[in-house]
Amino acid sequence: MYRSVCHLLIICLTLGDVACRARHASTQRSSASQISRAAPAAVPVASPAFLSWNHPSVAPCALFDKAEIESLLGTLREEPRPGGSTLDGASCVYVGAEPLVVSIGVISIAVFEAEKSDPDITYIDQFADQAYIVRPNSFDTNFLARRGEHAVMIKLTAAANITEDVRLHIVEQLGEEALGRLAKL
Fold first, then answer.
1. Torsions phi, psi of 100, nearest 5?
2. Which one of 31, 34, 53, 147 has the minimum C-beta count within 10 Å?
3. pLDDT over 70 percentage in the chain
4. How far is CA 168 from CA 93, 153, 174, in A?
5. Does the pTM of the predicted model rise above 0.85?
6. What angle do CA 115, 40, 170 make, to 5 degrees?
7. Rounded Cα gap, residues 139 and 125, in angstroms
8. Domain residue extents for the chain
9. Fold assignment, 2-183
10. 100-153 pLDDT, tens digit each
């Protein structure tokens, strides 16, 4: 209950704080796509009626087969299993033989919007309706993307020797595929 109230408060603050985020104008360029710390000029913030806590009834482990994941991560050390960390939704965790762990989760639009309040957000241009990355530490890359009424969070934990371009490629590929498959449900 406390977490739900906190998320609702963050959503309210986020919707009122769109103009403040536009002040952060530093930009970076990645080989995978263009990223920027500034909110896009016209941030497609969901209307209050669209801020839903609902999730589609899909098991995240059913979104990908093992071979698809292995094409990005290499051989898996164990079978995919429910679990991992993706805020308010269900997720599936994949543990690679190399130092890579990926959690793919389906999250609510409300949480997608609430997480925009993180001070270290980096927006990804030209992806989905909106996408961004939060880097809570040097090992984790949290990629959140929304298309229509579906939102996903891809959490990648990797050793420091995994480059930023490789991290971005993995999370963008998984995010694009997951959103495409959710739209077909």
1. -135, 130
2. 31
3. 71
4. 18, 13, 10
5. no
6. 60
7. 23
8. 2-183
9. Protein Transport Mog1p; Chain A (3.40.1000)
10. 999 999 999 999 998 998 888 999 887 778 999 999 888 999 999 999 889 999
